[in-house]
Amino acid sequence: MKTQGALLWEPGTNSGWSIEEIEIDPPKRREVMVKLAASGICHSDNHFDDGVIPLEWAPILGGHEGAGVITEIGPEVEDLEVGDHVVLAFLPSCGHCDMCVAGKSNMCVLGAGILGGTAPDGTHRVHARGQGVGCASFLGTFAPYVCAPVDAVIKIGKDIPLDKAALIGCGVPTGWGSSVYAADMQLGDTVVVVGIGGVGINAVQGAVLKGARDIIAIDPVPFKQRKAKEFGATHVVSSHQEAAPIVEQLTNGQGADRVIVTVGVMTGDLLEAAQALTRRGGVTVLTSAAPILQRDVQIDLFTFAMSGKRLQGSLYGTTNARNDVPLICDLYRSGKLKLDELITRTYQLEEINQAFSDMKEGKNLRGVIVYD
Ligand SMILES: NC(=O)c1ccc[n+]([C@@H]2O[C@H](COP(=O)([O-])OP(=O)(O)OC[C@H]3O[C@@H](n4cnc5c(N)ncnc54)[C@H](O)[C@@H]3O)[C@@H](O)[C@H]2O)c1
Ligand SMILES: [Zn+2]
Ligand SMILES: [Zn+2]
């Protein structure tokens, strides 16, 4: 089918997204066509444009946070049918590799290919200007339709509003899971969340759900600080320096049990700053993406070892999407997890560059592109 999509032709040059005609093939083996309701604007897509995540191929159809309705089914698809409401997971899970079987589906072998520039079978589903287009996370939700591998498609109840459900494709589980799973949060913890965007605000939600006693949100943007309070942060500050005396006072000088880093772009100095706020035996979780070639980090290694601290990476919040996407829907239904309030502003696809510039200026908790 012919439709419109947002492409990057020169990744890494801050050239912005080009809206143009694309052609999407019908679903092949174990694929479905999904008519999207909405796509979230996640900072990771900007990393293709600014070069934090360098790509060696182009063009890319961006977008990896979407939800919609299945309109067409390819061969050998079981358990899904036309009309099903689905969330598209930015990390696929096959269900039978060693990591999937071990209950670590965010480490599924299929995940290794999401930035490879083709569908899992090595061919293209999307074409523009007569050539193959790579899709972010095998998806490409910056277009009204997505031909998606079933391993990334998760059926949800028809009562969940699809425009809100889009955020369950990436930002919600990534942030929520960074608290609930990656940080291994415990009742009564003192928690610091660094960076209150579409990911960090969900780390705040996860901390609330796990019964954290104190939640200190750090973000330089006053609007983000207000939102963090609304979502349950007990303290809001602009910087690590401002957070330090508060953490010290709240913990009798011990430091925070968990520090979760969800800033837009990770840098080495931010890791040492996060470590410094973490208590003996505590956990620092790194969820943010850093420039791929960055190697510079300075840590007080003596104290790190002798204080038994843990540094924990977090991909997709260490969630198991097939279990956690329905769980997040249940928590939303019962009023325990907010989705509607995450969306600050909606945009048409044509306004995508405005949406990214608003994200970079800190104007949105999450911006969302809505489709007809
Ligand atoms: N690990 C994963 O699986 C995964 C998944 C999705 C996104 N990410 C990454 O998570 C990060 C956050 O994504 P997002 O969509 O929430 O971004 P965002 O732009 O919506 O939010 C980032 C926030 O960080 C704040 N910030 C920037 N520098 C800061 C600093 N020094 N101290 C405190 N706050 C600061 C900004 O003001 C902004 O509010 C990105 O790096 C993204 O690529 C990782
Ligand atoms: Zn994302
Ligand atoms: Zn797998």
Write the layout of secondary structure elements.
Blueprint: E1 2-8, E2 18-24, E3 31-40, H1 43-50, E4 60-61, E5 66-73, E6 85-88, H2 98-101, E7 126-128, E8 131-135, E9 145-149, E10 153-155, H3 162-165, H4 171-182, E11 190-194, H5 200-209, E12 214-218, H6 222-230, E13 235-237, H7 240-250, E14 256-261, H8 268-277, E15 278-286, H9 301-306, E16 310-313, H10 321-333, E17 343-347, H11 352-360, E18 366-370
Parallel strand pairs: 4-8, 11-12, 11-14, 12-13, 14-15, 15-16, 17-18
Antiparallel strand pairs: 1-2, 1-4, 2-7, 3-5, 3-9, 3-18, 5-6, 6-10, 7-8
Helix pairs in contact: 4-5
The protein binds nicotinamide-adenine-dinucleotide and zinc ion (ZN) (2 copies).
Note down, in words, how this protein is organized.
The structure is a single chain. The protein has 372 residues and is of the alpha/beta class. The chain has two domains: 2-161 and 339-370, Quinone Oxidoreductase, Chain A, domain 1 (Alpha-Beta Complex); 175-314, Rossmann fold, CATH 3.40.50.720. The protein is 26% helix and 26% strand. Strands 3, 5, 6, 9, 10, 17 and 18 form a seven-stranded mixed beta sheet that branches. A six-stranded parallel beta sheet has the order 13-12-11-14-15-16, sandwiched between helices. α9 links the parallel β15 and β16. It is globular. The mean pLDDT is 97. Bound molecules: nicotinamide-adenine-dinucleotide and zinc ion (ZN) (2 copies).
